[in-house]
Amino acid sequence: MKKKYVTHILLFALMTLVIFTGCKKDEMEQGNLWLYLTDAPIDMEGLEGVYITFTGISYQVEGESWQSMEDFNGPVIFNLLELTGGETALMGNFEVPAGHYTGLRFHLDATQWGMGPVNNPGCFLKYENDSIPLFVPSGEQTGYKAVGQFTVPANGSVDITADFDARKSVVKAGMSGLYLLKPTIRITVNNQAGAIEGKILNMPENGSVVVYAYESDTYTEEEAGDPEEGESRFPGAVTSYKAEETGDFILSYLAPGSYDLVVGLYEEDSFVSVNKVEEDIEVVSGETTLHDIELNP
């Protein structure tokens, strides 16, 4: 009888240890994800706002299925034009499983192409006296996957920024006068990112200058050619910036590495030519590389 009693005590102690260890393991497998939003400027004359409404976020831990970000309080709307030049907006601080993440998906309040007129669009372009709805291609139901990976440490946190590149994401639908939203989003881990900042030393009297950042040796002359319908010019650029009237520009949230800067000249909204390519500009984590540009005559 005594032996049986001792056995029961040992089994109870073992079960308690297993439960405690399991709870402790679950607790250790959590971390915090701070998610920010930024944008590369869009080159459209007279545009006052690019409004995007986010309804949800999904994530995928390596080897696991997609899950919803339960702590995201949507829908929430952002004007991307307010988030250029390194400016960001906090989308949320989320408690998530620790581990290596292979993707985020962003779900938007946008009407599918071909569904007819929209009275209160969730995604739209804003001009002084008009608003133009943005449509998404039909069949886009699973959200828009951002390019980039990151790791959430156990009992720690990571800050990442989603760069919603409006220049490549908003495209004209032929001669219809309507616009399609084809989101191009990249993820950067904030403490690993660097930037390139500089000045166009001899800004033209008329027109504007846009600086495009390419990973070194990836730019080709075809990138500057007339794009196919529904596509953008310079599609392979990591990011871009329309230089201020003073000539100042900044290319933010760049992963460490070597970049080529492609300098494009514009008159109003029309592309004129590539003026020059500045090669092998190095970007280091946590630092801003200074690089001024003098245009060719």
State the gist of this model.
The chain is mainly β and 297 residues long.
Helix content: 10-25%
Number of helices: 2
Please, how many domains? 2
Beta-strand fraction estimate: over 45%
Q: Which structural class fits the helix and strand makeup?
A: mainly beta
Give the uncertain stretches in residue-range form: 1-14, 16-26
> What is the residue-averaged pLDDT?
86
Overall form: globular
Q: Output the radius of gyration.
A: 24 Å
Listing every helix as H and every strand as E from the N terminus to the C terminus, the arrangement reads HEEEEEEEEEEEEHEEEEEEEEEE
Major sheet, described briefly?
A: 11 strands, mixed
Q: Which assembly state applies to the chains in this document?
A: single chain
What is the β-strand count? 22
Straight-line distance between termini = 101 Å
Detail the topology: elements first, then pairings:
Layout: H1 2-28, E1 30-38, E2 49-61, E3 67-68, E4 76-79, E5 89-97, E6 99-108, E7 111-112, E8 124-127, E9 130-136, E10 144-145, E11 150-152, E12 157-164, H2 166-169, E13 170-172, E14 179-181, E15 185-189, E16 194-199, E17 208-215, E18 239-242, E19 248-254, E20 257-267, E21 270-283, E22 288-290
